[in-house]
Design a protein that fits this description.
16% helix; 6-stranded antiparallel sheet; Jelly Rolls; binds 2,5-dihydroxybenzoic acid
Length: 345
């Protein structure tokens, strides 16, 4: 009789809350994402293989998605964010399009390519961070003489969960160049001297199109000797929107971290989900008891509410990490929580 009573509910589009309660209101978050490391050394040959066998007319973008084993459908890197490795060859172009997802690129290898964002060619060199805010037209052109590889990041897992995804292809392959190269970067170069004739566009995206590695390295070097840094994140600098001093995108915050030689970080967890790419150095990030060993250009997933700590394995060299997370989302929704902890292992 009882089973019939439950079956009847299902027919009526109803369900007994008491059978779902613990899953719907967990005592604390239980991410479906797993701690994971994607190996640059293992994936790079596959990128090169597809660059030789798949043309950019067959694929809109030649990208290997970094799919978290706990998040295969839909594929995502952490619950709200995606990472992919994109390769483009000299002489190639990638079709102009736009989507409501916010995106950025972090350049890993090569030079001579640029992304055009709403008419502005934005040049790419290793370590550069380039923003492609939602609904901005973007296409890629490579005029160098060696393959170019970068990390793509998008918030589409979040945008699609919110059912706010729109996409459009540009009527031609490339959009016209209507602005000077890197203008969005040049006119905000100093961050403490902003152009008076410009105002925020209201989306919460930074107006800076390119954060050059040159500037990032200069910022790190300027404080390397005497900055205190964080016992969890090392000497961590947040890329900022010069209008607000806040994160570069409404959904994604980006940081660069310098871990001094022998850095043995304190453990912490937060509700934000994080992706890391190793700029240089060797070390490990321990996440909920799982030790993820990393070296140059590896990518790491730290699920939300997982406890983690970073270790620089070298006693003589710095390690540098680039990280991004959905912390701006958590904060703007009043859902950001953090506390110290020990990840074990
Ligand atoms: O380069 O525009 O990895 O639209 C995924 C979606 C890259 C891009 C991705 C994209 C792009």
């Amino acid at each position: 009789m009882t089973d019939d009573a439950y079956a009847a509910l299902e027919q009526l589009g109803a369900a007994p809350l008491w059978r779902f309660y613990g899953n719907l209101f967990p005592a604390q978050p239980r991410s479906r994402a797993l701690p994971y490391r994607w190996s640059w050394q293992d994936l790079r040959p596959h990128l090169l293989h597809f660059s030789k066998t798949l043309s950019l007319h067959e694929a809109e973008r030649r990208v290997l998605m970094l799919v978290n084993p706990g998040l295969t459908d839909p594929p995502a890197t952490v619950t709200t964010l995606y990472a992919g490795l994109q390769i483009i060859l000299p002489g190639e172009t990638a079709q102009a399009h736009r989507h409501t997802s916010n995106a950025f690129r972090f350049v890993l290898e090569g030079e001579g390519a640029y992304t055009t964002v709403n008419g502005e060619p934005v040049r790419m060199a290793p370590g550069d961070l380039l923003l492609t805010p939602g609904w901005h037209w973007h296409d890629h052109t490579h005029q160098g003489d060696a393959p170019m590889i970068w990390l793509d990041a998008l918030d589409y897992p979040l945008v699609n969960a919110l059912e706010a995804g729109f996409y459009e292809q540009y009527p031609e392959r490339l959009q016209p160049l209507t602005r000077g190269a890197d203008l969005g970067s040049r006119q905000f170069l100093h961050g403490r001297l902003n152009p008076t004739w410009l105002t925020p566009d209201g989306t919460g995206n930074s107006p800076v199109t390119r954060y050059t590695w040159q500037e990032t390295a200069r910022a790190l070097d300027a404080i390397a000797e005497d900055a205190t840094g964080s016992e969890v994140d090392g000497i961590a600098l947040e890329y900022t929107d010069p209008f607000t001093g806040g994160p570069v995108m409404p959904t994604i915050g980006c940081r660069i971290h310098r871990l001094r030689p022998g850095f043995d970080g304190a453990g912490r967890r937060h509700t934000a989900s994080t992706v890391i790419n190793v700029v240089r150095g060797e070390g490990a990030t321990v996440v909920d008891g799982v030790r993820l060993e990393w070296s140059e250009h590896d990518t790491i997933a730290i699920p939300g509410w997982a406890t983690y700590r970073h270790v620089n394995a070298s006693a003589s060299r710095d390690a540098v990490l680039f990280s991004y997370s959905d912390e701006p989302v958590m904060r703007s929704l009043g859902l950001y929580r953090t506390e110290p902890g020990d990840p074990g292992a």
